[in-house]
Specification:
Length: 170
């Protein structure tokens, strides 16, 4: 009997955690907002039904380090940032396309499936230092070009937006 009760608590505890993650709003950013996510999302933290993120919030998602070269740099660099799929899970995004927009209003449509298929990251750090606007920051949508050389093509390069300010889930 004690064993059944303990298992029941585990299940109830799991349901509580699941409900807390998916039913409540995201915390509000404490620092400077560097990314706004809008559109078809379930989890928000503003009155405008958007999700705003500061650097700390993004670093609290599932973060990955990626050592890769890019078509816009020489050699291999170390990039670090949250996985795109982790961000989409945090905002409760539905599968679909993402309209990724840069500070200069350049925009590219990125299938959300790319985050699942290729471990795409939102690079925030370059070689151990936060990325500035001057070096493609604050966020750079980065594919693992060295791990999967087939990604080094015009379609994927056009999806690799840097200086990201917003993502709209469509």
């Amino acid at each position: 009997m004690k064993q059944h009760i303990a298992m029941g608590l585990v299940v109830l505890s799991g349901l509580f955690v699941f409900g807390a993650v998916h039913a409540q709003d995201l915390p509000k950013p404490k620092g400077k907002v560097i990314l706004t996510v809008s559109g078809s999302i379930k989890n928000t933290n503003t009155d405008a039904n958007t999700a705003e993120f500061d650097r700390e919030m993004l670093l609290n998602l599932e973060v990955r380090e990626l050592n890769t070269g890019t078509p816009w740099s020489e050699g291999v660099d170390s990039y670090r940032g949250p996985l795109l799929r982790s961000l989409m899970a945090a905002v409760g995004a539905q599968a679909g396309n993402l309209s990724v927009t840069a500070l200069n209003d350049y925009s590219a449509v990125v299938p959300s499936q790319d985050g699942e298929d290729y471990n795409v990251i939102l690079a925030m750090d370059l070689n151990g230092a936060p990325m500035s606007v001057r070096n493609k920051g604050p966020l750079f949508l980065l594919y693992p070009f060295n791990e999967l050389p087939s990604l080094n093509n015009e379609v994927i390069q056009n999806r690799s937006v840097w200086q990201i300010k917003s993502i709209r889930v469509e």
